[in-house]
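S1.2 Input.
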Amino acid sequence: MKIKHLLFTLAAVLMSSAALYAQTPEEVVAKMQEQLLCADAEGYAMDMTMKMAIVGSATTHILVRGEKTKIQIAGNSGSEIDWTDATTKWAYDPAKAEVTVSAKHVEGKKDGDLAPFMNLTEGYKVISKGETADEWIFVCKKLSTNKDKDAAKKIDLKVSKKTCLPTFLQMKKSIVTMTIENVALGVTEDEVTFRPEDYPGVKIVDNR
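S1.3 Output.
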């Protein structure tokens, strides 16, 4: 009887713990967003793929640290590596063995913006599509109250159970499909800084 009572008690504790740690889709997304708030202080990296009908696709590996970025681009038209800081852009063309330096153009948002993750619960219903041992899987469906004509109708999202960071996001707008993967925190200043000595023999053209 004592053993049965012990097993019953243990089962009750486990069920209680499972209920305690059960999380709604909104709670998981909130924890993911909380983790991403560390990006400003720690820097972050991610892979982004843009696919356009007829035109083809391009994949970029993006590193961001404060005002500095490094973007490695590979697509149908070739490859390029770009560095930027608050005022300057360095563009390296491997085919020409040339780096072009120019003034940075101020845009509405910086390359590699994390806004697609931070705005998920605004204008969307987050629905669980299941989970694996490593990830939560969601689909975000645009609400009828969302009047943003440019907003995607559906966003697919996966979140790591280990880190609470997004591992996959995909959305389609018109003929463009954007996929973001491998989001990670922690980028150093050196990783986003252009140094001429790292590219010996490369011609540098300063157009500032």
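S1.4 Remarks. The first helix runs from residue 2 to 21.
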